[in-house]
Amino acid sequence: MNIVIAIAAVLVSAFNAFGFYKAGSFKAKATKEVLLGAGMGWVANIPLGLVRLIAWLEILGAVGSVAGPIGAYATGFTWSLWVGVAAAAGLALTMLVAFIMHVVRGEAKYTWKMNLTMLATSIIAAVLQALVVLPIF
């Protein structure tokens, strides 16, 4: 395993996890009115339970993408590296669906920068973590 790739994977995953954890914890704690006031117009048309599900998926993905690699390095459980890969890939899929939803709703002109940034960091984190699990170099 290349130590540079492993360090880059942890750093990108930590940056990615920070953003998703903040977004997820806000969605998990805020009322529907607060979310609408924050510019999340999509919340008006879906049940609050689905908003909470999305929030918890973001939180769990953030925790998993960081805890997987750290768990492997700290305890030697190499299987936990796969948890990090799966969590980062799941966050990438979440952002892909979010981007598609915003395009369909006509909100992409307001959200495309954040959506694509979070999508790109999730993909980069997943690829770097996969390179650590499946060392090619």
TrEMBL record:
<keyword id="KW-1133">Transmembrane helix</keyword>
<dbReference type="InterPro" id="IPR032808">
    <property type="entry name" value="DoxX"/>
</dbReference>
<feature type="transmembrane region" description="Helical">
    <location>
        <begin position="116"/>
        <end position="136"/>
    </location>
</feature>
<feature type="transmembrane region" description="Helical">
    <location>
        <begin position="79"/>
        <end position="104"/>
    </location>
</feature>
<keyword id="KW-0472">Membrane</keyword>
<dbReference type="GO" id="GO:0016020">
    <property type="term" value="C:membrane"/>
</dbReference>
<protein>
    <submittedName>
        <fullName>Unannotated protein</fullName>
    </submittedName>
</protein>
<dbReference type="Pfam" id="PF13564">
    <property type="entry name" value="DoxX_2"/>
</dbReference>
<keyword id="KW-0812">Transmembrane</keyword>
<feature type="transmembrane region" description="Helical">
    <location>
        <begin position="35"/>
        <end position="59"/>
    </location>
</feature>
<feature type="transmembrane region" description="Helical">
    <location>
        <begin position="6"/>
        <end position="23"/>
    </location>
</feature>
